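User: Some background: our group keeps a shared notebook of sequences we're curious about, and every so often someone picks one and asks for a predicted structure to add to the entry. Today it's my turn. The entry only has the sequence so far, pasted here. Could you supply the structure so I can complete it?
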Amino acid sequence: MNSFYPKSLEEVIESFRKLPGVGEKSAERYALSLLDLSEEELENFSKSLKKLKKKLKSCKVCGHLTEGDICDVCSNINRDKNTICVLEDYKSVFAFEKVGNYKGSYHVLNGLISPIDKVDPVDLNIVALIKRVEENPGCEVIIALNSTIEGEMTTLYLKKVLEDKKATVSRLSYGISMGAEIDYLDPISLDKALGDRKKF
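Assistant: Of course. Here's the predicted structure to add to the notebook entry:
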C-alpha cells in the first residue's frame, strides 16, 4: 500500500480490497468517496455494516439468510414446500429470486464437498435436507449447484444419499456451461436451466 495515505485512510482502503472484484484503484475510490459523506451519513453507513453481521443468521428450515428464525421464503404459505431447490449458498437464492419464476422452497448447503479444502459432507447442511425430504414424501429435489468439480462431487453425493428416499431428484440442465457459477448467470439462462431440469 502506498505510504502517502494517512494510516486511517489506508486501513479503509485495505478493508475495501478484501471485497471480491475490488482492486486497488476501486478501493481507493470507495474510501475517498466516504470522505464526501456527512458525519450523519457515515454514521448510518457504519451502523448498517455492524447490523449486517449482528442481525443476519441462518433460517432454521433451509439455511438461507434471515433476521428471524424462519426466512421469508419458508414462511410464505404460497410457496410450494414439495419442491426443494438445493443451492450452494445464499447468493444463489438471491439469483433465483431475481428471476422471479421459481415458486418452490430452497435448501442452502453453505458450501460444496471439497477434499482439497477439507470440506466433507458432515460440514454441509445435508442432514437437515435429508430430514426435510423424509418429512415430505413425494417431493422433488432440484440440485442446482455450480458446474465445477466440487459441484459435481456434491451433486453425486446428494443423489446417492437421496436415492432410497421417496423423492424425485432432478438437476439444472439447459444453459449452464461447465465452470459456471449460479449467482453470476443471467436471468434468462437461469430460468431456462430451471425449466429444462432433468431427472437423474
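Suggested note for the entry: The chain has two domains: 7-55, 58-199. The helical segments are 7-17, 24-34, 39-55, 72-75, 90-99, 127-135, 149-162, 187-195.
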